Amino acid sequence: MRLTVIGTGYLGATHAACMAELGHEVVGVDVDRGKVPALRAGRAPFHEPRLSDLVARHTAGGRLRFTTSYEEAGAFGQVHFVCVGTPQRRDCEGADLSHVEHAFGAMGRHARKGALLVGKSTVPVGTAARLADDHGVEIAWNPEFLREGFAVEDTLRPDRLVFGVRTPRAERLLRCVYGPVLAAGTPLVVTDFATAELVKTAANSFLATKISFINAMAEVCEAVGGDVRSLSEALGHDGRIGREFLRAGVGFGGGCLPKDIRAFAHRAAELGVDLGFLREVDAINMRRRDRVIELARQLCGGRLLGARVAVLGAAFKPDSDDVRDSPALNVAARLDLDGADVTVYDPEAMDNARKAFPLLGYALSVEEALRGAELVLHLTEWPQFRVIDPRRAAELVRRPRIVDGRGALDAARWTAAGWLFRALGGPPPRPTAS
User: Fold this and answer.
1) Would you state the pLDDT for residue 136?
2) Do residues 274 and 287 both lie within one domain?
3) What pTM was estimated for this model as a whole?
């Protein structure tokens, strides 16, 4: 089939490349004239495993093209996927739908008769029905469930597909688009617009709630001298609860969970439904960043001014260069404001981090970041950080003190190497050399 994908950000570029991988002819559309030439040259606009290879291969093979012209896109595609961003509004916690409105309006004017416009953006419930009424075109809603770092896999082999449709024809067209995926046995839920919109926001809200729950338990463990790692392990054996998303740490960030739970609570309030628990989920998440700052101050003798701090991590999660609402960079910037001498290192997100926080210090390697540090903060769970040799690291730093903000390091190994080791939700540290 001939498909267009409007928006070539994280969602759109991945969707366009994966649709080409499934055998479709695809045109990607973006109003950012600086981004399109790089895509035409086969370069992905961000770091995501496997994506660069797909973009390069399918642009070279002619199956994937990019343009800035809605008119060209409208004349090309039979099915148009809208994959633009819905950031948080500046004036409130609701979603900014201006990009979605523009995309549907433009495609409504330029799409061929009989074309299907498919929303993939995360939107407040009720948006699809309103867009269908406003623009007089056939619309479907097909929410995305991508995990950064696994986006290609999640598109080509998703754990489920959801089609929000009003007509059998829309369902047939989407079944054709996803034919190879459905043939592989992927579960399909066909439903109405509102439910399709809610699946995405409900899923993100549940995941955020689970993360904040274990972080709230970490606060309790810290108050009573318990160990949240052992607590998480015991809870994870319960089949009703499961192990996923039960690791306490500095909390979630990125371009989805924080703004999506705020927008969901805001929309629910507009509908007269109280989802106030999501505000507490958000508050718990933000408190974890405060706790890292508190631990840093304690380990620096109550004074951050002039303290040399190495921050390992800038991306909000590993296998990504996305620094949107990154807990690691938020903590680093706040330490800098408190007078600390902060140096950040991340394997992939350095360029984006510099753009977002140009006044922070940056290192070219782990070793450079550690050299002379009085405190180390482990804030993004990259595999490279988990395998650091703590004895070698102790030779580089000025004082061997570390806060594991992701609960991923081997406390016994670091302590045996002479480090004062603290973790969120961990028991009080045993005395060691400093």
Assistant:
1) 79
2) no
3) 0.92
